């Protein structure tokens, strides 16, 4: 049994995946955060949730942060200790803002920090690969870990990613509905096969989107066009599809955020947004440059370096 820290706190950002044509690959970190504190304690695992999901999320072994912690302890060949977990959540669940990836990344980083054994410390690429495996795809966990704008892919079964800086004039805005939508259900709406022309269309738009996000935001409206997932999912989220169409008709680059039903719009500079009524919470968020970070621990490190920021994993 390795020596354990007694308490660690991690801060993990919301994320938006796909960004239109970059299905399962492109993602953006948003400056809205969950904060999770883990304390090693005798007895079972006990979870307290405040904020988003309070009274709804599980409070024991089946909580997603705990499941991720168990996966990391397994990877280190260590038993999961008794734990008190406090989750202060600001990321709404099942809305397309990367809540599950944030929970997974939080769990993996908490476990990594709790095990005080430098020789066996999980390296950053292993954390990304494990997080991608738990989530099923790497496009949300990558920006959650690395911050900024990420391109993620799977190679030999392992999630990999590179981080890029988005253009400073880009300001993400999310329109969050009251209704929830599970990623698993949205993925079930996708066809097994797509026309070759649509695949070629998306390849071009996704490549253009990397240029638009990093260097030329004027191209964002064209670069965010998609033919691989949004139309197939529209019948399951008609209000989302309608809002995306309304914003795009007004010249605002708008897409389904992740698997929805939240809508992500890109405002460039002082660009204005049309009034869309009061059924949506409208959050003007910055890009989270740094990604997940350890904000406190028993080792006395008050504010440590962001995890893996700026590196390839
Ligand atoms: N902070 C959390 N704590 C515990 N479980 C969570 C947390 N966030 C998400 N989950 C689990 O993940 C589920 C939502 O995951 P899902 O992938 O469907 O949505 P999302 O991650 O919010 O959206 P997207 O992947 O489209 O960005 C919740 O119903 C819950 O079971
Ligand atoms: N790429 C994923 C993101 C949501 O987890 C999807 O659209 O299903």
Describe the structure in your own words.
There is one protein chain. The protein is of the alpha+beta class. The protein contains nine helices and eleven strands. The protein has helices at residues 64-75, 99-114, 124-135, 141-146, 183-188, 196-214, 220-223, 230-233, 238-249, and strands at 7-17, 26-40, 45-51, 83-89, 149-155, 158-164, 170-176, 254-256, 263-268, 281-284, 293-297. The strands form two sheets. Strands 1, 2, 3, 4, 5, 6 and 11 form a seven-stranded mixed beta sheet that branches. Strands 8-9-7-10 form a four-stranded antiparallel beta sheet, covered by helices on one side. Helix 1 (64-75) packs across helix 2 (99-114) and helix 2 (99-114) packs across helix 3. The longest helix has 19 residues, at 196-214. The protein is globular. Mean pLDDT is 92; it is low at 299-313. The structure holds adenosine-5'-triphosphate (ATP) and L-homoserine (HSE). L-homoserine is lined by residues 17-18, 23-24, 137, 139-140, 183, 186-187, 229, 258-259. Adenosine-5'-triphosphate is lined by residues 17, 34, 53, 57, 63-65, 87, 89, 93-101, 103, 140, 182-183, 258-259.
């Amino acid at each position: 049994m390795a020596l354990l820290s007694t308490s660690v706190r991690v801060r993990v950002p919301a994320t938006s995946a796909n960004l239109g044509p970059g299905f399962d690959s492109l993602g953006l970190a948003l400056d809205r955060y969950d904060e999770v504190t883990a304390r090693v304690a005798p007895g079972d695992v006990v979870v307290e949730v405040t904020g988003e999901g309070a009274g709804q999320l599980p409070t024991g072994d089946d909580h997603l942060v705990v499941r991720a912690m168990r996966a990391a302890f397994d990877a280190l060949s260590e038993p999961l200790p008794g734990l008190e977990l406090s989750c202060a959540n600001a990321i709404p669940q099942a809305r397309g803002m990367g809540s599950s990836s944030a929970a997974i990344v939080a769990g993996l980083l908490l476990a990594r920090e709790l095990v005080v054994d430098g020789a066996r410390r999980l390296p950053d690429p292993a954390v990304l690969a494990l997080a991608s495996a738990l989530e099923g795809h790497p496009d949300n966990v990558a920006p959650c870990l690395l911050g900024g704008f990420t391109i993620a892919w799977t190679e030999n079964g392992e999630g990999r990613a590179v981080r890029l800086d988005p253009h400073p004039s880009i300001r993400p805005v999310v329109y969050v509905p009251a209704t929830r939508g599970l990623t698993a259900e949205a993925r079930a709406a996708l066809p097994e096969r797509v026309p070759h022309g649509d695949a070629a269309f998306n390849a071009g738009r996704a490549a253009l989107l990397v240029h638009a996000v990093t260097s030329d935001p004027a191209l964002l409206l064209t670069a965010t066009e998609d033919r691989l997932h949004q139309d197939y999912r529209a019948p399951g989220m008609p209000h989302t599809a309608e809002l995306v169409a309304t914003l795009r008709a007004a010249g605002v680059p708008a897409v389904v955020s992740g698997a929805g039903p939240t809508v992500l719009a890109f405002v460039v500079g002082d660009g204005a947004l049309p009034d869309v009524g009061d059924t949506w919470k409208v959050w003007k968020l910055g890009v989270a440059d740094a990604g997940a970070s350890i904000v406190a621990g028993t080792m006395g490190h008050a504010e440590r370096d962001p995890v893996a920021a700026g590196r390839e994993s």
